[in-house]
């Protein structure tokens, strides 16, 4: 699984899936491809919707986050933009990482990873 370590708030120092804001006039797929390229140096073919979560934002705002599956089609892995690091991880490594709040639960809920037996991780 491809993750980036956030270099700036919110979430500085935490690992998460690449992502960011959809710019005006952009489709979700265009935004996913742009954000992955900016944060990881990789080009991707964007696939189906993996899942949706709501997360609290500043001033009581609630952000709807839509995560998509994607396949790498080119580029070279290198942290960029607001990412301090970018790496591939085996799903079994995720519970030991400092993850963005709710990420592990979301990935398990979308059946993208198995919840490790006896895990109480909420990352």
From TrEMBL:
PROSITE patterns: NUDIX, NUDIX_BOX. Residues 1-112 form the Nudix hydrolase domain. Coiled coil: none annotated. InterPro entries: Nudix_hydrolase (IPR020476), NUDIX_hydrolase-like_dom_sf (IPR015797), NUDIX_hydrolase_CS (IPR020084), NUDIX_hydrolase_dom (IPR000086). It holds the Pfam family NUDIX. GO terms for molecular function: hydrolase activity. Keywords: Hydrolase. Belongs to the Nudix hydrolase family. This is ADP-ribose pyrophosphatase YjhB (NUDIX family).
């Amino acid at each position: 699984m491809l993750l980036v370590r956030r270099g700036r708030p919110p979430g500085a120092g935490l690992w998460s899936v690449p992502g960011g804001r959809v710019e005006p006039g952009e489709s979700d797929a265009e935004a996913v491809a742009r954000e992955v390229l900016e944060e990881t140096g990789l080009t991707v073919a964007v696939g189906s919707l993996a899942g949706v979560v709501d997360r609290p934002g500043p001033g009581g705002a609630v952000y709807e986050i839509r995560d998509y599956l994607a396949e790498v089609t080119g580029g070279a892995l290198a942290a960029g933009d607001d990412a301090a690091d970018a790496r591939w991880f085996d799903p079994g490594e995720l519970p030991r990482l400092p993850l963005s709040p709710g990420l592990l639960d979301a990935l398990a809920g979308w059946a993208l990873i198995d919840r490790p037996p006896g895990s109480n991780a909420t990352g």
